[in-house]
Design goal:
The protein has five helices and two strands, in the order H-H-E-H-E-H-H. The termini are far apart. By secondary structure, it is mainly alpha-helical. The protein has a two-stranded parallel sheet.
Length: about 110
């Protein structure tokens, strides 16, 4: 399933996506043209490794990956193409407002960099 999601991203960015494993998919994503700009949103991440499989996009690409737990957030926050992640499971209204404000900031940052 992870390789198929990578394939979908690769195909959306103009690559045929001829690979079978997540490690091959990451190499494919790494080889896409650096001049491409994209925002990849990976919603509801449970494991940092799932987001890490996409941490190979070019310098004009960014990843937004809201995570379900702090462990996944920690992994996502170390990735070069990801904006900081915050846990979303069981969030209170205050946390939810903070995350929404953070996401608005992220979206504006993306627009500014493109």
């Amino acid at each position: 399933m992870l390789a198929q999601l990578q394939r979908d991203v690769a195909q959306a960015l103009g690559d045929p996506g001829h690979f079978e494993t997540p490690s091959q998919g990451k190499e494919c994503l790494r080889g896409l043209p650096a001049q491409r700009a994209a925002l990849l949103v990976l919603d509801d991440i449970w494991e940092g490794a799932h987001a890490e499989a996409f941490d190979a996009l070019g310098p004009r690409c960014r990843m937004l990956a809201p995570a379900r737990n702090c462990t996944a957030c920690g992994a996502i926050n170390t990735m070069s193409s990801a904006w900081p992640s915050h846990p979303t499971a069981g969030a209170s209204d205050d946390v939810d407002r903070h995350v929404q404000a953070h996401m608005r900031h992220i979206m504006q940052s993306y627009v500014d960099c493109c």
